[in-house]
Amino acid sequence: MNGALASSTAKEMMADLTQIIAALPDKSLLLLDDDAPLRTRLGRALEVRGFEPVLAESVTEAINQVRARAPAYAVLDMRLEDGNGLQVVRALQAARPDAKIVMLTGYGNIATAVAAVKAGAIDYLAKPADADDVARALLAVGGESPPPPENPMSADRVRWEHIQRIYEMCGKNVSETARRLNMHRRTLQRILSKRAPK
Questions:
Q1: Residue 129 carries which DSSP code?
Q2: b/e string for 59-87 if b means 16 or more Cβ within 10 A?
Q3: Most confident option among 76-80, 82-86, 182-186
Q4: Among the listed residues 149, 181, 185, 182, the one whose alpha carbon sits nearest the alpha carbon of residue 165
Q5: How far apart are CA 95 and CA 93, in angstroms?
Q6: pLDDT of 35-64, one tens digit each?
Q7: What is the rounded (10 degree) CA torsion for 48, 64, 60, 84?
Q8: Which residue, 1, 38, 145, 186, has most beta carbons within 10 Å?
Q9: Which residue, 71, 116, 113, is CA-closest to 95?
Q10: Structural domains in the chain, sorted by start
């Protein structure tokens, strides 16, 4: 029964978001992320909700998109191979000061959150972000904070996601990942061999 109720509430919430987005005069959205599966999944989910996303995988590609047609909304990854999402924030703020920008990152820390907000972002979400959380953040009205996520990640899941991200960045080299995380190699191997926590 609780599962059916939660499913019903989620469907109602998505319907509400879809109606709000449908009423927007400009639904253009730039989605920048170098993680192809995440970019594709989030792009589709935001499109289902009514946005008109254009996907980019690099800072250069995103800045070119901004120059071609500055979107009303943007969801930008913080760290990319060819630079930093803050570069795109600055370009978008120069081209369209009223654009609403949400930063996504696997590196949640206060310094980068402050830098993102100072540069013009309206919110800052940890990856992997849910499409509804992203949409609510984009639609938040003047200084109002969106409600907290319905099902936030557990501390164990956040830790696991961070370890996975560093592991990927190190080319799946266990020794280098363990060194960067200041963790014993065997401990890291045990963590990597387990399923992701809920």
A1: P
A2: bebbbebbeeebbbbbbbbbbbeeebbbb
A3: 182-186
A4: 181
A5: 6
A6: 888 899 999 999 999 999 999 999 999 999
A7: -70
A8: 38
A9: 71
A10: 2-139 (3.40.50.2300), 155-193 (1.10.10)
**What amino acid occupies position 144?**
E
Q: What amino acid is encoded at 131 in this protein?
A: A
Euclidean distance between CA atoms 179 and 167, whole angstroms: 11
Distance, in Å, from the CA atom of 43 to the CA atom of 65, rounded to the nearest integer, reads: 15
What is the spatial distance between Cα 86 and Cα 106, in angstroms, rounded to a whole number?
Answer: 15
Q: For the sheet with 52-56, list strands across it.
A: 52-56, 28-32, 73-77, 100-105, 123-126
- Across 93-103, b (16+ Cβ under 10 Å) vs e yields beebeebbbbb
How far apart, in whole angstroms, are the C-alpha atoms of residue 180 and residue 167?
A: 9
Alpha-carbon distance 189 to 72, whole Å?
44
Please tell me the total number of residues recorded for the chain in this structure. Answer: 198
